[in-house]
Design goal:
Helices cover 43% and strands 24% of the residues. It is built from seven helices and seven strands. It has helices spanning 8-16, 18-25, 34-47, 101-117, 141-160, 178-181, 183-195; strands at residues 6-7, 51-54, 57-67, 72-82, 85-92, 123-128, 133-138. Strands 1, 2, 3, 4, 5, 6 and 7 form a seven-stranded mixed beta sheet that branches. α1 (8-16) packs across α2 and α1 packs antiparallel against α4 (101-117).
Length: 196
């Protein structure tokens, strides 16, 4: 991996929370909680299965993807090919996708896959382990533009190392790094300082 490469997973983290992305990819901080441990266990199972066929579909797991054009690198959970068409499948531990971060991660995988195979990729999937459901992700021009814009934002974050502010949202409740950033405390300190 080149130092300039953006990890595909960073797009997911940045879209979920820029501050979390900074802590993980700039400060090198990571703490497990029960959500991250469940996710790691899921990915360990997915990545240990290798390659093969499921009916008419060829599958390969835990394959590295790269895009020189976008400066991306990362491991795909699953790539499937059927009738000459490729599509990425990302595995997530949750029941459903509530936010766009999973779709952007799949789109980034598709951008790499297109460059590596020379084939257009028009569809991807997110498999949600709790519900045992695949959610189809149409790789529209709009989603591609948002993914490319996010790649640029993450590149800027990695290059400058500038820490985004910690902002409290409902997503913070499940974040394994909540105790490190304490977004509510930061807001209270700022409020207190303004009143002085």
């Amino acid at each position: 991996m080149n130092l300039e490469d953006v990890p595909i997973a960073a797009l997911n983290q940045y879209t979920y929370c820029p501050h979390r992305c900074w802590r993980m990819f700039c400060a090198g901080e990571f703490v497990d909680n029960h959500y991250t441990l469940e996710g790691t266990g899921l990915h360990d199972r997915v990545h240990s299965l290798g390659a093969g066929h499921r009916e008419e579909t060829w599958q390969v797991r835990a394959i590295w993807l790269r895009s020189e054009r976008y400066g991306l690198v990362g491991k795909a959970d699953l790539i499937e090919a059927e009738n000459g068409k490729y599509y990425p499948v990302e595995y997530k531990r949750s029941a459903t996708g509530e936010f766009e971060n999973d779709a952007l991660q799949v789109c980034a995988q598709a951008l790499c896959l297109e460059e590596m195979t020379g084939q257009p990729v028009t569809m991807g999937y997110v498999y949600y382990a709790q519900s045992h459901q695949r959610q189809a992700i149409a790789l529209t021009p709009e989603l591609r533009q948002r993914a490319i814009a996010t790649i640029d934002q993450v590149k800027t974050l990695l290059e400058t190392g500038t820490m985004p502010p910690a902002v409290y949202t409902p997503r913070c409740k499940g974040c394994s790094l909540y105790a490190q950033c304490l977004p509510r405390a930061a807001a209270q300190v700022n409020q207190y300082q303004e009143k002085s």
